[in-house]
Amino acid sequence: MERLDTGNHAKSALVVQHDPEAMTRVSLNARESGRDVALVPTMGALHDGHLALVERAMKSNSHVIVSIFVNPLQFGAGEDLDKYPQTLEADLDMLRRAGVDSVFAPSPSGMYPDGPRTRVTPGPLGGELCGATRPVLFGGMLTVVAKLFQITRPTVAYFGEKDYQQLILIEQMVRDLNFGLRIVGVPTVREPDGLAMSSRNRYLDPRERATAVALPTALHAGARAGDAGAEAVLRAARAILDAHDDIRVEYLELRDPELGPAPASGPARLLVAAHLGGTRLIDNVPVTLK
């Protein structure tokens, strides 16, 4: 266990735990003292999007735990596990300044001491959208999130809407497996030009970064076409994406808010995944169909 001085002596120092059992003891002690426990799971390489989750958690007057773990189970062969940015010291400094109570930063061997023998299966939705091209993603993600819930014993957990399919699958798992905690989705945080904040944005070269703004531009154009119906939404978004030869669209889909088939009218979600060079980006926006 490490203790990092927060510089704010009204609160105790930031506690960094690497051992799962020690982390559970910290969480149970907080709950026994009458506090709720709020979990913000991350893979590190923190940015303002992560801090928005932390800020929401801090407002709950809970014992706030941020987990930092690059989960190997959710990366397939040829994906970016080996190059995924790991910036633990910078992340800890950011969380210290934010006033977080605890950080859980385990090793892969600490999380999977006997290997990943038991896994969570995401069901049919796990093979759609992002899961169609990344078949191990959501099973790996749900498995580690389930373990994080068991280790940190939260009463509430915060996830960003930028990873919308992830959010829906976590809500599904919590309901189906009776985890007994509340899931809060936090709206996507964007750069000034509209690009959704992501740890993978740092992979983009300057030209790719300039082009990437076409993704949110397309989504918002689609959302504005909601009055004209589902086909108009997709046409408006597709027209902007098709104007960029260096954007390779993996999918552009309109779904209902639970990621079932798009409704004829009412709330919906417009989602995109696309590649710029070697970088895969995702984004989504709410849409109202009339």
TrEMBL record:
Family in the record: Belongs to the pantothenate synthetase family.
SUPFAM superfamilies reported for this sequence: Nucleotidylyl transferase
Name by which UniProt lists this protein: Pantothenate synthetase
One Gene Ontology CC term in the entry: cytosol
Listed EC numbers: 6.3.2.1
Binding site residues for ATP: 43-50, 160-163, 189, 197-200
Gene designation per UniProt: panC
Reactions accelerated catalytically: (R)-pantoate + beta-alanine + ATP = (R)-pantothenate + AMP + diphosphate + H(+)
Biological function: Catalyzes the condensation of pantoate with beta-alanine in an ATP-dependent reaction via a pantoyl-adenylate intermediate.
